[in-house]
Amino acid sequence: MLLYFVSTLNFFQVENMEIRSANKGGFIALDDIPNMKYTAKTHIVVVWLRSLHNDPDHYDDPLNFNPDRWDKPAKPGTYQVFGGGHMICAGNMLARLQLTIMLHHLSVGYK
């Protein structure tokens, strides 16, 4: 629907660029949304999960491969593998089913 209102899309783009420049090139944070003029409070804001998983505030050196980081559980809300809400990955239940089947065969076939 917004495709037909190019001027509205331009307002969104200008507003987003202003906020990003105020954040020194960072992402738009949840605290920025009430200050936005053109983004309505009823709009759905989607979190870019890659930015959440690569946040150095949550993980030490997030771009390095370090399996030891999973020795302690992640902080709640900082690890969203399959997304959440109405944007949840359709493969979530398939992955759980495959893990269940693999664990079954592993435990039954173990000698």
List keywords for this structure.
iron; 36% helix; Cyt_P450; Cytochrome P450; 2 domains; Cyt_P450_E_grp-I; mainly alpha; 111 residues; elongated; single chain; heme binding; 3 helices
What does this entry show, briefly?
The chain contains 3 helices and no strands. The protein has helices spanning 6-22, 49-53, 92-109. The relative contact order is 0.07.
Main β sheet profile: none
User: If you compute it from the alpha carbons, what radius of gyration comes out, rounded to the nearest whole angstrom?
Assistant: 20 Å
Share in helix: 25-40%
The stretches of 5 or more residues where confidence is low (pLDDT under 50) are none
In N-to-C order, the SSE pattern is HHH
- Termini gap: 60 Å
Provide a count of the helices.
Answer: 3
Pfam families: p450
Organism: Eleusine coracana subsp. coracana
Binding site for heme: 89
GO molecular function: heme binding; iron ion binding; monooxygenase activity; oxidoreductase activity, acting on paired donors, with incorporation or reduction of molecular oxygen
Word description of this protein:
Heme binds at residue 89. Its cofactor is heme. The protein has helices at residues 6-22, 49-53, 92-109. The protein is mostly helical and 111 residues long. The chain folds into 2 domains: 2-81, no CATH class; 82-111. The radius of gyration is 20 Å and the shape is elongated. The chain starts with 5 loop residues before the first helix and ends with a helix. The model has no long low-confidence stretch (mean pLDDT 77).
